[in-house]
Amino acid sequence: MDDSARMWITPVPALDPDGEPAVLLGHDCASRDAGERAISRLLDRGHEGEEGVFYLLPFDLSARYERTGDRLAVVVTTSGQLLVKEPGYRSDLADFADLPVDGADEDRVVLLRREIVTDFVPAEQDGEKQPVLLIDHDGSAASLAELFDRFEAGEAGIAVLNAE
């Protein structure tokens, strides 16, 4: 499946209309894809800090940037051990077993990979790459503007993923 249409590089109006561009990935929480289903489960595993704000641990869910020529890819991964050991995931183990092992870290599995043609270079601060924003929504959206509208209406969430 070509997910290129579900990756954008743009400022995020809901957060800072005059801000720097961010890398956004659309995530359909109603998808039947095993990787996206695993992402949904992991987002539900977030640790609540302030009311309504959940924190993800990089062990649970993280992203990595890869560049090949004029293409920028984002790979979202999780710990393979987490999928095996978490009791709530047992019913999905057969599907999760087919997820590819991450070539950069054999202890992790790839949940999704998206790429686009761009000259954008993610910013770095203190040796840390710019986070990836994952827009979690139900169903397919026609455009990025529609996803932002869903976020403003409380029908979509944004998860901040640490990136390598």
Brief rundown of the structure:
This protein is α+β, with helices and mostly antiparallel strands.
Question: Could you walk me through the main structural features you see in this protein, from its secondary elements to its overall organization?
Answer:
A hairpin with a 2-residue loop joins strand 7 (101-102) and strand 8. The model has no long low-confidence stretch (mean pLDDT 82). This protein is 18% helix and 38% strand. It is of the alpha+beta class. The chain has a four-stranded mixed sheet with strand order 1-2-11-12. Strands 5-6-8-7 form a four-stranded antiparallel sheet. The protein has a two-stranded antiparallel sheet with strand order 3-4. The protein has helices at 34-44, 80-85, 93-96, 144-152, and strands at residues 7-10, 22-28, 47-48, 54-55, 62-68, 71-79, 101-102, 105-117, 124-125, 128-129, 132-137, 156-161. The two termini are 24 Å apart.
